[in-house]
Design brief:
This protein is α/β, with parallel strands linked by helices. The chain has a single domain, classed as YbaK protein (Alpha-Beta Complex). Strands 1, 2, 3, 4, 5, 6, 7 and 8 form an 8-stranded mixed beta sheet that branches. The protein is globular and about 40 Å long. The termini are far apart. The model has no long low-confidence stretch (mean pLDDT 96). The structure holds 5'-O-(N-(L-cysteinyl)-sulfamoyl)adenosine. 5'-O-(N-(L-cysteinyl)-sulfamoyl)adenosine binds next to helix 2, strand 2 and strand 6.
């Protein structure tokens, strides 16, 4: 099951022009700090793929591993009244992948209506994102991440504006 999630992502990424070279870390990459420790990169180079529900619609916030999303800022950015974190079931329904392995793109079409990307990720030469499972990640440039995810670069983190 784990490897089929990686294969699913790899095939969808290829269709978006991204070559996914997934690396498996048996010690786990479930959280940003786990992933940074496994890869040996700064936690700010890990892409968190966080799903929120904004006025009932799933929104994806691609956030640098060291940052936290400010839900009020996210609400402003997507023009929603009500924002909350998605449940595990909602993450799977929106993206086709489980929490801890949710990749930043390669989801079934038509569910996630808006994708936002933390500008802090653009300061990294290379970033690492989940490859479909909680034990796999893959590297890519932040530019490729923006292109493949169709994200809008907008800062909705707790430090935004400082
Ligand atoms: N593989 C790592 C690094 S790429 C990863 O997926 N990190 S993540 O940050 O994108 O996904 C983990 C996030 O899932 C946590 O930060 C947390 O926000 C969220 N999460 C974990 N458990 C739950 C839960 N039960 N309900 C909703 N969200 C959860």
């Amino acid at each position: 099951m784990g490897s089929s999630a990686v294969e699913r992502l790899t095939a969808r990424a290829a269709a978006l022009g991204v070559v996914v070279t997934a690396t498996e870390f048996p010690e786990g990459t479930r959280t940003a700090s786990d992933a940074a420790a496994a890869v040996g990169c700064p936690v700010g180079a890990i892409v968190k793929s966080l799903v929120f529900v904004a006025d009932g619609r799933p929104v994806l916030a691609l956030t640098a591993g060291a940052n936290r999303v400010d839900e009020a800022r996210l609400a402003d950015a997507v023009g929603a009244q009500d924002v909350r974190r998605a449940t595990a079931d909602e993450v799977r329904a929106a993206t086709g992948f489980a929490i801890g392995g949710t990749p930043p793109f390669g989801h079934p079409a038509g569910h996630v209506t808006d994708v936002l990307l933390d500008p802090a990720l653009l300061e990294q030469p290379q970033v690492w994102a989940a490859a479909g499972t909680p034990t796999t990640v893959f590297p890519l440039t932040p530019e490729a991440l923006v292109a493949a995810s169709g994200a809008r670069v907008v800062d909705v983190t707790e430090d935004a504006g400082r």
